[in-house]
Amino acid sequence: MLHRLRSATVAVLLVVLFPLLLPSSAPAVGGTSGYPSRGEETRAVTEKAIAEGAIGVAVRADGSVLVRLPRGRSAPLRSMPAETAIRASQFSAESLDSLSKYLASGAWFPDAQRFPYAFYYDAATDTIVVQTGAPSASTLSLRQQHPREITIRAEAVSRLSGARTLDGAPHYGAAQLFDGISTCTAAFTIRVGSTNYGMTANHCYQPGVDITSGPYYYGRVVNRPPYPAYDFTEIGGSSYAGRIYSGSATTNKSIRVSSAASACVGCSNLYFSGQSSGEVGGLRVTALNGSLCDADGCTYALVVTTGPQRPINGDSGCPLFAKASDGSAQIRGLLSGSTTTGSTGYWENWGTIAAHYGATIVTG
């Protein structure tokens, strides 16, 4: 028996994002996890200080608390333990809010589109810490304008996408896709004219339906060819890059795409990378004239492979590829279906896709 390999099984993902909290919200409390000895007592002190107008709190190694009051604050805090250190900040509440909003605007940062950044007020140093992987030249003007108020840390930051199951833009091939009903896998990125598109199997999704990868919008089916004559389709509406995920089904590893060519009979040591199976190698092409027929009808001229492991539900649309000597991916096609026993896979050939759309492969 053989079948198309979308999956209606929904994996539950726990996604933790770290939103920016400007000083109009309660300032974040640094270092409050794992209090050395007094646990809940220390937590109560920090929460009380914030409630009474402190702009920041830090917990020292011995468990004591350092409280920063806004510049010009005259009213003392009530009922603080004797060992609590209370210090005036260089910032007023207004100046901290203003500088934080300036940082959030990105107006100071010419590389904001290329390098993510994050920042927070650190009560221990009484500065705003800015973290970014950008070159030091990109933050030079900020350091010159605010030498006392800002601490720059050369630390790259991310929103924790970059994984097969949490693929944010620009999107990679071999990512998990979901439309609320079916789970499939992205294939690779093609270029038609001057526009990049993602690809997946045509049987997975209908036009006009939002496709996501975890919490991230991946796009919608566009320029859908007749189905089941063709079991591939473009996805548009976002940005797409020349890389595919490799490794396990939950990987954050990826490899660049370096080329694409049609599959050939006898070609061996091919790979696929699906959201259910992860990366699997050792495939061999046995035919280029396969047909897959089901209740929808038949799809013809498919690449037929055998190997140590067949693709499984949820892998539909995943890329078939060889690896170059540098480990990059050389695309050969995308998955239509497989047998449910044995080890046979059926794949749309890269040559068919390229000819239908007049497409070229996007490389990384």
List keywords for this structure.
364 residues, mainly beta, six-stranded antiparallel barrel, six-stranded antiparallel β-sheet, 4 helices, 11% helix, 38% strand, elongated
Task: Kindly summarize this structure in a few lines.
This protein is mostly beta strands.
What do these coordinates show?
With 364 residues, this protein is mainly beta. The chain is 11% helix and 38% strand. It contains four helices and 25 strands. It has helices spanning 39-51, 93-105, 140-145, 350-357; strands spanning 2-4, 29-30, 56-59, 65-69, 85-88, 117-122, 127-132, 150-154, 171-173, 176-178, 183-185, 189-192, 195-200, 211-213, 216-222, 233-236, 240-245, 254-260, 270-274, 278-294, 297-306, 319-323, 329-339, 344-349, 360-361. The strands form five sheets. The protein has a six-stranded antiparallel barrel. β7, α3 and β8 form a beta-alpha-beta unit. The protein is elongated, with a radius of gyration of 27 Å. Mean pLDDT is 83; it is low at 9-38.
Number of strands: 25
Structural class by secondary-structure content: mainly beta
Sketch the major β-sheet: 6 strands, antiparallel, barrel
Strand arrangement across the biggest beta sheet: 19-20-21-24-23-22
Task: Give the averaged pLDDT, no decimals.
Answer: 83
Low-confidence stretches: 9-38
Q: What percent of residues are in strands?
A: 35-45%
Task: Please bin the fraction of helical residues.
Answer: 10-25%
Enumerate how many helices there are, as a single number. Answer: 4
Shape: elongated
Rg from Cα: 27 Å
Order of helices and strands: EEHEEEHEEHEEEEEEEEEEEEEEEEEHE
Termini separation: 37 Å
